[in-house]
């Protein structure tokens, strides 16, 4: 899965940037709602953001290891 996204992000960099912006917006919205409303349901957005950041990091690591030689 990380390999597939690494290839995808190399081929479609604008969509990858859009994905990053969406994850950042979800993080910011979740933080704001969690602080403003003190409702724990908005912590799901923080969990989603953490998972996606980990996914992006692993894909980037894979790309750096194996695609740098190309």
The shape is elongated
Number of helices: 3
Mean pLDDT: 92
Total count of domains = 1
Query: Low-confidence parts, pLDDT < 50 over ≥5 residues?
Result: none
| Proportion of residues in extended strands | under 5%
What kind of sheet is the major sheet? none
Order of helices and strands: HHH
User: What is the terminal-to-terminal distance?
Assistant: 20 Å
Specify the oligomeric state. Answer: single chain
Structural class: mainly alpha
**Percent of residues in helices:** over 70%
Rg over CA atoms: 15 Å
Record field, number of beta strands: 0
Transmembrane segments: 17-35, 41-57
Keywords: Membrane, Transmembrane, Transmembrane helix
Describe the structure.
It is a single chain. The protein is mostly helical and 70 residues long. The chain has one domain. Helices cover 84% and strands 0% of the residues. The protein has 3 helices and no strands. It has helices at 2-11, 13-37, 43-66. Helix 1 crosses helix 2 (13-37). The two termini are 20 Å apart.
């Amino acid at each position: 899965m990380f390999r597939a996204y690494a290839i995808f992000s190399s081929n479609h960099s604008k969509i990858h940037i859009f994905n990053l912006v969406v994850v950042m917006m979800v993080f910011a919205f979740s933080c704001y709602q969690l602080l403003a409303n003190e409702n724990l349901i908005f912590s799901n957005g923080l969990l989603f953001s953490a998972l996606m950041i980990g996914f992006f990091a692993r894909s980037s690591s894979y790309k750096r290891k194996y695609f740098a030689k190309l």
